[in-house]
Write a structure and sequence with these properties.
This protein is 72% helix and 2% strand. The chain is an all-alpha fold. Helix 5 packs parallel to helix 17 and helix 6 packs across helix 7. The radius of gyration is 21 Å and the shape is globular.
Length: 418
């Protein structure tokens, strides 16, 4: 019994430290720990294999089983696409293929690693520990922010005529993510009585001046103050309302959206998006495969696709400087896995959303609802960021999917008790 307890405590401590490291220290020490999210993926896959070999029963929701099958399908599509491209005379570096494979699936592997550990760790205790340290991190970040406003210690860039802040993070989006994460974790204990305190915490992310964060801020307010009423709306009606809302957003920002589809603009994002559609058509239905387009490894081991489509001269996509290749996520999915892969991944995300929404509607007490509210806001945060960031392949996605796993574990445990 003592050994089991110690084993659980070690695992729980490792999970908490890993999350804190990836959220608050990853950017500052990227040269040293830049591989850490991949290390978590290897650890998670090892856990899944060991648990499977010892025939321990893994209790998953039906949606999670569908998700795992769909992810396997994407993996098969990607590998077959690499083989098909090779047969056509296009060579992709093997390291790029393997690296991109790991990058694409690491967040989901981390999620299922946490899920299969549900009987070996106390997920709710992990969340409580995480809550304590996240609150401390919030006050430390606020102190750093005040000092930066006064003494201008860290880089500040002008957006809309106003200075934006990022502190020691490598980008303003990572700065805002830190406050989003703190908000989500503290939501678990403060939703009922301290909503304005939660809003106060989240408001510090506004200093990033990121449009994506403003969108998440707006959604978080709606869920916090009107979540109960929204959950009473039938699913079909909710989807229709959401569809109309997206159309309204598209209409308001139509000029900005049109820039993404402008072929002659020379803007790296529009070039990447437009050519992903070309790839989807030319290599229908499966794309060009892992490590070939709009991914980190497609830039590091410069892919044949960029020269093939004549975009290897575009600033931010060229072999000399390819820093903007990973500025988007969805063009990468379409380019590498084709229309079938894109549709499959969209179903994966839909299944996650429905997993959270259905469990939220079925929750019988406030604690269960809070687990699912946080999960729902978390997946929406990733979706918003994915519009101009390859977030699903980054450390931030690994963090969020670990959090999802802990929340689902806690939800199930709490549900079984009640």
């Amino acid at each position: 019994m003592r050994k089991t307890y110690n084993y659980s405590k070690i695992l729980e401590t490792f999970i908490v430290l890993s999350i804190l490291l990836l959220v608050f220290f990853y950017d500052a020490f990227n040269n040293i720990i830049g591989f850490y999210d991949e290390l978590i993926a290897f650890f998670s896959i090892s856990v899944i294999i060991i648990v499977s070999l010892f025939n321990q029963r893994i209790k998953l929701f039906k949606s999670e089983i569908y998700i795992s099958v769909l992810l396997l399908f994407i993996a098969i599509i990607g590998i077959l696409s690499n083989y098909h491209s090779y047969k056509l005379g296009h060579f992709t570096n093997k390291i790029a293929i393997i690296g991109d494979f790991i990058n694409f699936f690491k967040a989901f592997v981390a999620y299922f690693g946490i899920r299969v550990l549900s009987n070996n760790i106390d997920s709710e205790r992990v969340l409580n520990t995480l809550l304590k340290y996240s609150k401390i991190a919030f006050y430390i970040l606020v102190i750093f922010l005040v000092l930066d406003i006064i003494f201008k210690i860290y880089p500040q860039y002008t957006r809309y005529g106003i200075k934006s802040f990022q502190l020691f993070f490598t980008h303003t989006s990572r700065f805002s993510f830190a406050f989003s994460f703190i908000f989500l974790v503290l939501f678990l204990k403060n939703y009922k009585s301290k909503k304005w305190f939660l809003l106060f915490i989240l408001s510090f992310g506004l200093f990033s001046l990121r449009v994506k964060f403003f969108a998440f801020y707006f959604i978080a307010i709606i869920i916090m103050f009107f979540g109960k009423k929204l959950m009473k709306i039938p699913r079909k009606t909710l989807l229709i309302v959401f569809g109309f809302f997206m159309l309204l957003i598209a209409f308001i920002f139509k000029d900005q959206l049109m820039m993404y589809f402008s072929i002659d603009s020379g803007w790296s994002r529009s070039v990447i998006l437009v050519n992903s559609i070309k790839i989807g058509n030319d290599f229908f239905p499966f794309g060009t495969g892992f490590g070939t387009y709009s991914s980190y490894f497609s830039g590091k081991y410069y892919s044949w696709v960029y020269e093939f489509y004549g975009i290897d001269h575009v600033y931010g996509i060229s072999k000399i400087y390819w820093g903007f290749i990973t500025d988007q996520f969805w063009p990468m999915v379409l380019g590498q896995f084709g229309y079938f892969g894109l549709a499959t991944f969209m179903v994966v995300i839909y299944k996650y959303i429905m997993l959270f929404v259905i469990n939220l509607k079925q929750s019988i007490d406030l604690k269960q609802k809070q687990f699912m509210y946080v999960s729902l806001m978390g997946i929406l945060l990733l979706l918003i960021d994915s519009s101009s960031d390859a977030i699903f392949t980054q450390n931030r996605a690994v963090v969020m999917f670990i959090l999802f796993g802990l929340l689902i574990n806690s939800y199930k445990s709490h549900n079984e008790v009640t």
